[in-house]
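Thread title: Can someone regenerate the structure for this chain?

I was given the following input by a collaborator and told the matching structure tokens would be attached. They weren't. Posting the sequence so someone can regenerate them.
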Amino acid sequence: MRKKIAHISDPHVTDRESADRFLALVRKMIMRYAPERWTIIITGDLVDHGNPEEFDLVNEGLSLLRIAGFRVYIVPGNHDYGAHGNFYSSKAHLLFLDLAEEIQGIREYPFKIDLDGARLLFLDSTAHNEEGEPFARGRIGARQIAWIETHLADEIPQWIVLHHHATWRNPFLAISDAEDLQAIVDRRDNVRYLCGHRHAEDLELIAAGKFTECACVIEVDPVSGLAVTRSLDRK
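Best answer:
Regenerated them for you:
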């Protein structure tokens, strides 16, 4: 059977209590999913302020997943790069990249993986220090958009994995260059998104919200596109 995706987002680990919630979700995931059949993707805001203590706390859960045999992939959110998601810190940025390298063996964004007939394109959608954008907003940037376009010619199912909600129009939280991204994506019917940031479920887009509090995971078949929300609190 081909591999599927277990998608979560926005755990916002900042203290012992939130770390324990994340650990509880991780343990439920380990009980439910088999690592040979499931890849785990977390679409940003792993922590809340980007400080070393938070990264140590969230890594407790990530390490359990790796020990259990899962491949885990992450993308950065605005909170991973600085306090309250609005104040960029180069130190926090480097701490996130250190964590990414430890967890997934890949440090730099963008990157791609192929997964049993589908392709996943992982982006850094944060707007850190670029053109004076309010930091909670997203920005893909010309370099990453050009990189995406080089991969979209293939007809296989493709997933763009990023933190910021790709089509949300809220002026304070949206992607500032979303129109540039949509210009290359809208021409194709084989591209969908995995994202977070908005803290709301949208299965048309496959946007995961802040689901650690309710122990929910979005299960995605990357080839068919079928997605369902699964509460791990239910038998």
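The chain has one domain: 4-231.
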